[in-house]
Amino acid sequence: MAFTLYALIQTAILLTNAVAVLHEERFLSKIGWGADQGIGGFGDEPGIKAQLLNLIRSVRTVMRVPLIAVNSVCIVLLLLFG
Amino acid sequence: TMDPHRGHRATKPRARAAPPAGDPLLFEDTSSRTAPSVNQGYYESGYNLGGPPDRGATMSNLFADPMANAAMMYGSSIANQGKDMVNKEIGRFMSVNKLKYFFAVDSKYVMKKLIILMFPYTHQDWEVRYHRDSPLTPRHDVNAPDLYIPTMAFITYILLAGMALGLQKRFSPEVLGLCASTALVWVIIEVLVMLLSLYLLTVHSDLSTFDLIAYSGYKYVGMICTVLCGLLFGTDGYYVALAWCSCALMFFIVRSLKMKILSSLSSDSMGPGVTAKPRLRLYITVATAVFQPIIIYWLTSHLVR
Predict the structure, then answer these.
(1) A47 touches B at CB < 8 Å
(2) Which residues contact B8 (CB under 8 A, 6 or more apart)?
(3) Of A11, A80, B109, B155, which sits most exposed with the smallest number of CB within 10 A?
């Protein structure tokens, strides 16, 4: 497997897009991964599931706008250079 | 008025070549007051504002011409502004001071660290020593991670890969770039997976990103050794060196990370959920260790065919 840096960037963009596309109401709440279902107790440490839900929610909040820009740039570049 | 110039043979031709105005008052002042070597330094690189501050101060006093004085002041302030802006921009992404800590090594440390990487079984004390709450620099503590060895080992690995491919008559500059970027991508992937797993398991260790990059980069030393043995002694030598370096590296990683990941347990409160955590942390440490030989084999087997 020969990786180029371009492949890494592509992978990162695709993965971030995948996380950003998960819909809050239609999907995450249905499988019990909603934003309000993870906060469980304020005990010692949140469990793995709570951390994961936190991560998904923060990625979706933070990366919405930058992803629009990055995706547009990617589309233009792929149209121009294949 | 020309007599003082004759004594300073070096300044005269240099002063002629210098801008701005051919003002005789200018040359006379500078050559009469200071030593030639200081003058040369200034006229040679007219924009060398990064020099020692006392030199700049004595320089600025010498200009009787206020225009040149003002121009030099303006130029130096512009340069300082540019330098500050660049430093600020870089400082927003990574802390330069923290990076400097990782490169504060000396040759004794490098020697000892390389020996520990190749033969860690006799090393007794694996604790990272602290000095008033901040970790000691690698110069003073052999257990501290550094970024000098991984960087040098990475570059050496790329060069060695080029040489090995050349021996097999498969060399071309594109292949070298591909090899370098593949190795770099694997390091990035490993660091990201480590960061993700440490975050998910809420391990409050003091492992920063640079620490993880450092521990991830130590495998390049093993890779270099393996490839060298493979080139010198053939396929058998390659497998022997692979086994040796893998065991040594696994031992090293487990002992080093055990201190950082597993011992952060003692500061947490003793709740009921604690019993599941040590096992998961152990899994992380062992998984990191087991990943090293796999990636060493993956990245070097095609070089020693």
Answers:
(1) yes
(2) B31, B36, B39
(3) A80
Per-residue pLDDT of chain B (305 residues; tens, 9 = 90+): 554 544 444 444 444 444 444 444 444 445 544 444 444 444 444 444 444 444 544 555 566 788 888 889 999 999 998 888 888 877 777 677 778 888 888 888 899 899 988 888 888 877 777 777 777 777 778 888 888 999 999 999 999 998 888 888 888 888 888 888 899 999 999 999 988 888 887 777 777 888 889 989 999 999 999 999 988 888 888 999 999 999 999 999 888 888 777 766 544 544 444 445 678 888 888 898 899 899 888 888 888 77
pTM above 0.80, yes or no: no
> Which residues, including other chains, have CB under 8 Å from residue B121's CB and lie 6 or more apart?
B248, B251
| B185 and chain A in contact, CB less than 8 A | yes
CB of B174 less than 8 A from some CB of A: no
Helices in chain A by DSSP H: which ranges? 5-21, 48-81
User: Is the Cβ–Cβ distance between B90 and B96 less than 8 Å?
Assistant: yes
Q: Shortest CB distance from B181 goes to which of A5, A52, A55? A: A5
B contacts of A5 (beta carbons < 8 Å) = 181, 184-185
Tell me the residue type at B299: L
Is any Cβ of chain A less than 8 angstroms from the Cβ of B267? no
Distance from CA of B301 to the nearest CA of A (A): 12
